[in-house]
Amino acid sequence: MAKSSPKAAKQSISFTVAALLLFVLYICGLFLPAKALAAQPVRIMLQWSHQAQFAGYYVALEKGFYKQQGLDVSIVPGGPGLDPADSLIRGEVDFASLWLSTALSRNEQSVRLAQVAQIVNASNLVLITRNSDNINRPAELSGRKISIWGGDFRAPYLAWLQSVGASPQIVPQYYSVNLFLRRGVEACSAMYYNEVHMVYQTGIDMEELKLFFLQEDGFGFPEDGIYTTQERFRQNAEMVRKFRQASLQGWRYAAEHQSETLDIVMEYVTRDKVLTNRPHMKWMLEKILRSVIPDAQDRWTFGSLSRQDYARTVQVMTQQGMIRSAPSYDEFTAGGLGYVP
Amino acid sequence: MFRKWSIAWRLSISVLLASVLILSAVIGYGYIIARQILEQELEDKAWQMARATTGRIELVEIAARKIVEGMDGRMEINAPASQEVLFTLLERLVRDNSEIYGATVALEPGAFGFSQKYSAPYVYRSWNQLVRDDRGKHATPYYVQDWYAIPQLLQRPVWIEPYRAEGRGNALMVTYSSPIIDAEGKFLGVVSCDISLEWLADLLNSLPLGKEGFAFLASQNGTLISHPNRALILNENMFSLAEEKNNAALRALGREMVKGKSGFIPYGTMFSGQHGWLLYQPIAANGWSIGIFFPEGELMGKVAELSRKEALIAIIGFLLLIPIVLLIARSITGPLRKLAEATRILAAGSLEEPLPQIAGDDEVARLAQSFVVMRDELKTHITMLEVAATSKERIESELRIAQRIQMELVPKTFPPFPDREDFELYAMMTPAREVGGDFYDFMMPDPDHLWVVIGDVSGKGIAAALFMAVTRTFLRAFFHEEKSPGKVLYRVNNELSRNNEASMFVTLFCGVLHLPSGNFRWANAGHNFPLLLSTEGVATFLPKTKGVVAGAMEDIQFTEAEMTLAAGDSLYLYTDGVNEAMNAADQLFGNERMQEALVRFGQAGCVAMVNGISHELTAFVDGAEQSDDITMLALRYFGPNGG
Questions:
Q1: In the predicted model, what is the mean pLDDT of residues B211-226?
Q2: Over the stretch B268-290, which tens digit does the pLDDT of each residue have?
Q3: CB-based contact A275:B237 (threshold 8 Å)
Q4: What residues pair up with A8 in beta bridges, in sequence order?
């Protein structure tokens, strides 16, 4: 071992070369752009457990769109007993996915919120009835027992029922549609992208159901949007803009790559042990994308809240006594941030 | 196509094909019957199994129901005084009922008057200890949850959809909830108890379903509560699986199941990718449904194995059958082919070729023997034919020679004496197909005498012809030497009788006409007497003389007779071929017809006479075959100075 063999010499040369290479790489690393090394941590909280309703954010994260903007995003799921608006106001998260009506009512109560993007521009609110119950027009709901969600989802239903002249007996509806399935009520509120398909997945065929879409009677309002606080926006408008851009990029990618997106969604739900299945997520993804990406007939713009829709929403909420006042459109949308540049 | 094949092939293929068909039918029938029997047995067993399983599940559920309803009833009668009372009650209940994981009494605010807030005393098991909890203090209010809200709104007890209990080991749970309603019908809260469903998996796994079989439970909504693939539990339901696989039949089955129907159906590849049967039956106590899948492969394995073995035996048998059938076919067609070959050679005329030797006594062997017999007979026949042909040819050549001799011996140039005006003479001989032996002759040894003779040799052929030639030679010699017909016949008879080993004889009529006087003398050796036709047209036979046939015996005297012919008289000499000619009706021409014809034609001269009678004769026989020579000679005397 004392003598140096040719083989040992060769090895030592290799080692030297490797060490040099590592050193060069290290020096190069020092001069790389700062953002790549230290991405800014950002948290967004969802209204509910992971599901296809939030596909765009998963895609933005998984495809590295956030990273490209120098953001290190964490997606925090919601769920029963969790309120993303509360978390946002308390400063636990930087962004929250909220309904427009939720944002408006919360805005009034405490901290001023700023809309970063209006993601879901079309309404998905539906009232489900069974064909066998023979409710052919909304007015025929009068006198029947129906279940309607509480909270921020309630206003559009009440306004709609009022306008169609229906006065049913309304019982509260919580997380499940089991009351409707057990025939405790003849109608129940539902998201087209979610509960309608859940009912279908209990073996009731679509032909056996009659759906009333609130949007068809002019009671469709914009739904999910990304919100932050006015304060955070003022502090770090650049970061907010980047988050908006990357999130919209995620949604657009999701619309263009639905199969890949579904795989990503399934990864999220599986990891989080959300009780659901792939066909349901597929349905949800297809339906939510229809209300996120406009087609030729839609009069709204991808990612942005229109002044008209804002005004309409404020009007109905005021009428229903959900809010007393609302900020101006420009203030609410953080000085036109919501417009696509 | 088929007809072009050899018999061996046709026979082999037909037999083998039939064997395959029969074997297939037997195996197929056996398979179907065995399947049916097994299916029936399986179905019976499946129903028993399903009943036993649902029975066990129901037992637990019925127990839970009784406990909840008992508790409920008690509270409706005796209002509890405090939360402590409720906890004590619940503890006793959970402790006494091992099926129960936990129990709750959840109250409306102000119920029973002891709490204004939401209050829900809850007792559950944890590591064999009972733990107290107040669900009214949880983050999620209980009034939004199905176990509270649904009995509240439905005003009746319900089984809640199964769920995973977070914080309780993520155990699969199901809750039975019953509303507490006071005497006035006011809703006070619910009593509920939670039952862990973890034992369900063990129960279903313990079913004897083999490796591939499995059982599953679906809730009222069709959600899978128990399934060998644990990842599916609660996530998937009958309808999501149907949707995922785009399988309408599976969705239809799910609908049947959630509607509480039961059935035993052949189950395609809906779930597991294998064929089999699915039994489904509701669990009446809570509206669930159990499904038990029996894979076809495993159950029908034995039948398939049996059929496989049968098929193997059949194939071996079939393979053994091939050489046997070929052997039999060849044993039949081989000799036939050899016979066919031999027949071809035989047909080519090689009668001496050996015929194939075929052993045994079957049809083919007998056929071969027949061939040998046929060949031998053919040989004999051909030999006989050859012999016959030779003798016939010899006979025919003999006849030809004899005929030539006969025809050459008689004079055929007429008129024979053209310069004589005192008589005319004409003769005709028509030989029968086989020579008879007739002849005629005439001669003038000197200008005043005319000899005429007519005869009929007995026998046929060359011998007869030669005998005739000899007779003629003698006659001609004696016509020169003698003047008397009786003397001529006497000498001829003696010459012929001498050395007559063949015992032949001849009939002869012989006469001589003295031309200057018209005197005609004659003698007769057994021949027909000629006719005389007078100028008045009267035909009479010449007077008879004594004498027998010549050549039979020596030293016979022949008497003579004589008459003088008037100018114009004719003599008509003939053989028995004329008057004994027969027609097809076996009638003889006879002397009378001959005489009539003679009278009718005789006046016009000798040629007319002979030809006329010949015509008459031809007309009479009317095509019947001529059996004897026909010979006629006519002589007309015109007187010494001519006509």
A1: 88
A2: 766 666 778 888 999 888 889 99
A3: no
A4: none
Angle at which helices B7-77 and B83-96 pack, to 10 degrees? 150
- The residue type found at B119 is S
Partners of residue B161 in chain A, C-beta under 8 Å: 176, 178
Q: Mapping DSSP to helix (H, G, I), strand (E, B) and coil, where does residue A122 land?
A: coil
Looking at chain B, which residue has its C-alpha nearest residue A274? B235
Going edge to edge, which strands form the sheet with A209-213? Answer: A169-173, A145-149, A187-191, A125-130, A209-213
Q: How close B165 comes to chain A (CA, Å)?
A: 12
**For the segment A172-185, what is each residue's pLDDT rounded down to a tens digit?**
898 889 999 999 89
CB contacts, 8 Å: A182 with chain B: 150, 154, 158, 220
Contacts made by residues B509-512, CB under 8 angstroms, sequence distance 24+:
B509/B453, B509/B454, B509/B455, B509/B573, B510/B451, B510/B452, B510/B453, B510/B475, B510/B485, B511/B451, B511/B452, B511/B453, B511/B485, B511/B571, B512/B449, B512/B450, B512/B451, B512/B452, B512/B479, B512/B483, B512/B484, B512/B485
Any idea which residue has 């076919």 for tokens? B329
Query: From the candidates A169, A176, A272, which should be mutated to test the interface with B, based on the most B CB atoms within 10 A?
Result: A176
Size of interface A-B (CB pairs under 8 A): 76
The Cβ of residue B348 has, within 10 Å, a number of other Cβ atoms equal to 9
pLDDT of residue A5: 47
Please tell me the distance in Å from B36's CA to the nearest CA on chain A: 33
Closest Cα in chain B, distance from residue A279 (Å):
6
Instruction: Please list every residue in chain B whose beta carbon sits closer than 8 Å to the beta carbon of residue A171.
Output: 153
**B238/A275 touch (CB, cutoff 8 Å), yes or no:** no
b/e for B499-532, b at 16 or more Cβ within 10 A?
Answer: ebeeebbbbbbbbbbbbeebebbbbbbbbbbbbb
Residue with tokens 């064997």, as numbered in its chain:
B19
Query: Which residue type sits at B130?
Result: L
Q: Are B196 and B170 in contact (CB under 8 A)?
A: no
Mind telling me how many Å the CA of A250 is from chain B's nearest CA?
26
The answer to whether B255 and B202 are in contact (CB under 8 A) is no
Residue B610 has pLDDT above 70, yes or no: yes
pLDDT at A27 over 80: no
Q: Which residues in chain B are contacts of A275 at CB distance < 8 A?
A: 164, 234-235
The helix (run of H) or strand (run of E) holding residue B222 is: none
Q: Cα–Cα distance between B259 and A92 in angstroms, integer?
A: 47
B282 and B276 in contact (C-beta within 8 Å)? Answer: no
Q: What confidence tier does A21 reach under pLDDT thresholds 50, 70, 90?
A: low
pLDDT digits (tens, 9 = 90+) for B7-56: 778 888 888 889 889 888 988 898 888 888 888 888 888 888 888 888 88
**B123 φψ region: left (φ > 0), alpha (ψ -120 to 50), beta (else):** beta
Mutation site for B-interface testing, chosen from A51, A154, A188, A277 by largest number of B Cβ within 10 Å: A277
Which chain A residues in 152-181 lie under 8 Å from chain B, judged by CB atoms? 171-172, 174-176, 178-179, 181
Contacts of A94 (CB under 8 A, 6+ apart): A42, A43, A44, A88, A228, A232, A239, A243
Q: How many CA atoms lie within 13 A of B377 on its CB side?
A: 6
Q: Is the separation of the CB atoms in B440 and B560 below 8 Å?
A: no
Q: Which residue of A has its CA nearest to B233?
A: A275
Q: Is B477 helix (H, G, I), strand (E, B) or coil?
A: helix
Q: What does the pLDDT average to over B221-249?
A: 89
Kindly give, in sequence order, each residue whose CB lies less than 8 Å from that of residue B381, ignoring residues fewer than 6 positions away. none
Please list, residue by residue across A241-267, b when 16 or more beta carbons sit within 10 angstroms of its beta carbon and e when fewer do.
Answer: bbbbbbbbbbbbbbbeeeeebbebbbe
* Phi–psi pair at B429, nearest 5 degrees: -130, 125
